[in-house]
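Input structure tokens:
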């Protein structure tokens, strides 16, 4: 916990003390008391800056870094690297959302695109790190990315109590393990529930089986959590802090995005709507309880966003 508290002294204030507030219209719609932890009101529109600020602050001997990214980590690393004079290379899949790719470039990073999914990008990033002899930043595996995300948990402690629920989008696991660690250390009565799409279930299946389970494909609009190969060390941490891990349908994710817009006035990318989707699919479980959902990112292509949130799309409540 001392390392996590100390991280706040290193992370740029733009990423700290993000808004946390009760959203009554959304709560009335869902049948529970809903609080939103908003991680999009910062320079990179996601929580990832907390981790990259910590990573880059500890790279005194490095002049260049490389990472694989679905889009948000790449933006954050480019932003943090630029302010510290680092040469940043980001490897992403060619079909990643254009808005994420454009913003990575706008922060001055070199962007290399690969065919295939995130795992192909990860393999290429590992190759580049070895070939160039530069530092590879791996989301969730680098403890700094987890400790940075864990500062969100510190900001939640004063607003939650025993019996409350915190819903956390689950991808590689940095946010889930970081926030979960803080909550279980300082507020053990709070239920930590991780949420993942049914189309990208690898980490949830691994949590349920208590061993790494890989999948042959990931098929979801929630590109930010579409990994197929869980990291064993991260799974071990997740098993220690998560009370449950649930899978949600694509239609529920789209509905969650629409509700965040209609009832909270928020533009959320699909991964950021996973918490709302979880409540939609199991209203009885959450009825009457205080639920905190972390809106973890807002980087989504406008055309795709309009398509996902169209009132004619399936799943409209």
């Amino acid at each position: 916990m001392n390392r996590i508290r100390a991280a706040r002294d290193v992370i740029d204030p733009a990423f700290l003390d993000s808004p946390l507030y009760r959203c009554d219209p959304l709560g009335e719609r869902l049948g529970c008391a809903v609080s939103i932890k908003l991680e999009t009101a910062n320079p990179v529109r996601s929580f990832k800056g907390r981790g990259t600020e910590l990573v880059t602050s500890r790279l005194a001997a490095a002049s260049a870094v490389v990472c694989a990214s679905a889009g948000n980590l790449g933006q954050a690393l480019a932003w943090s690297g630029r302010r510290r004079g680092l040469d940043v290379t980001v490897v992403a899949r060619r079909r990643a959302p254009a808005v994420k790719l454009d913003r990575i470039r706008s922060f001055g990073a070199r962007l290399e695109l690969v065919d295939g999914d995130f795992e192909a990008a990860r393999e290429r990033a590992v190759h580049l790190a070895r070939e160039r002899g530069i530092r590879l930043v791996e989301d969730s595996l680098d403890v700094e990315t987890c400790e940075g995300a864990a500062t969100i948990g510190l900001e939640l402690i004063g607003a939650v109590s025993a019996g409350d629920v915190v819903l956390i989008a689950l991808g590689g696991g940095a946010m889930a393990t970081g926030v979960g660690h803080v909550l279980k250390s300082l507020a053990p009565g709070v239920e930590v529930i991780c949420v993942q799409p049914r189309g990208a279930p690898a980490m949830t299946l691994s949590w349920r089986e208590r061993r790494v389970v890989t999948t042959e494909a990931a098929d979801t609009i929630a590109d930010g959590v579409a990994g197929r190969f869980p990291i064993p060390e991260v799974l071990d941490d997740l098993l220690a802090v998560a009370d449950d891990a649930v899978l949600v349908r694509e239609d529920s994710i789209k509905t969650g995005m629409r509700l965040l817009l209609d009832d909270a006035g928020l533009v959320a990318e699909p991964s950021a709507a996973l918490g709302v989707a979880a409540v939609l699919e199991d209203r009885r479980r959450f009825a009457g309880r205080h639920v905190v959902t972390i809106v973890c990112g807002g980087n989504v292509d406008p055309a795709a966003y309009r398509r996902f949130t169209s009132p004619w799309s399936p799943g409209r409540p």
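The chain has two domains: 2-45+143-308, 48-137. DSSP finds 14 helices and ten strands in the chain.
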